[in-house]
Amino acid sequence: MQAQCNALSRGSRSDCRLGRNGGIDTLKSTVTRLGRESAKELLARIDSSAKRLSGREAREAVVEILNSGVPTYSWVGIYLLRGSTLQLDAWKGPAPTEHVSIPLGRGVCGFAAKAGRTEIVSDVSKDPRYLQCFLSTKSEIVVPIIHEGSVVGEIDIDSDQLDAFTTLDKEFLEAVAAKIARHCVPPSAA
Ligand code: SME
Questions:
Q1: How far is CA 177 from the centre of its chain?
Q2: Ligand 1 in contact with 77 (CB < 6 A)?
Q3: Are 96 and 127 in contact (CB under 8 A)?
Q4: I need a surface site. Which of 44, 120, 140, 161 has the fewest CB within 10 A?
Q5: Is the CB of 155 under 6 A from ligand 1?
Q6: pTM of the predicted model, to two decimals?
Q7: Quick one: residue 11, left, alpha or beta (phi over 0 = left, psi -120 to 50 = alpha)?
Q8: Ligand 1 pocket check: which of 140, 158, 160, 165 to mutate, most ligand atoms within 8 Å of Cβ?
């Protein structure tokens, strides 16, 4: 059971216990959010990937590290801003999204890109801007990727947990966005 418990919690704490029928009950509400130590370690890995890789490979590595490294990050995607449209680029999660192209200003993604600032939605069911991708999503964070003062893309993360994102996630993901910004500029502007 402990092995399954560890697999579920992946470095964070998720309380597991043996249920009455011998099965495993996971108290999902106790899954802890991103911690400082974890954020530091993940940022170091992303820094190393951003230095070693470039372009699409770097972006793929980042979504993989974020999705596998933080249990509450259920689906992680990078959108690139091309003209006035956000185009889905690298992503990692259990299923693809239908929202592969989002006009600037539409949805939480379009809003964050237009405003050039991070948006945290702690309960997506209460935000009229929200464009649904997955039935399981409960909260979302969108972090613009800014290169030389212009938004060139964004990191979009859906969580199956309500209220999954804190100021630490915001600071951490803004640092991640800064590290990969040069890998997100359109080829003609690079
Ligand atoms: N929920 C986003 C759309 C993108 S999916 O989450 C992958 C939005 O409201 O803009």
A1: 11
A2: yes
A3: no
A4: 44
A5: no
A6: 0.85
A7: left
A8: 140
Task: Write out pLDDT tens, residues 113-123.
Answer: 999 999 999 99
SS3 call for 151: strand
**Structure token digits, residue 143:** 């972090």
Please name the residue whose Cα sits nearest to atom 6 of ligand 1: 133
Question: Which segments of the chain are extended strands (E)?
Answer: 16-18, 24-26, 75-82, 85-92, 101-103, 119-121, 139-147, 150-159
Q: For the residues 161-181, what does the mean pLDDT come to? A: 97
pLDDT tens digits, 133-153? 999 999 999 999 999 999 999
Query: Which ligand 1 atom is at minimum distance from the Cα of 75?
Result: 7
Residue-wise pLDDT tens digits, 23-68: 444 444 557 889 999 999 999 999 999 999 999 999 999 999 999 9
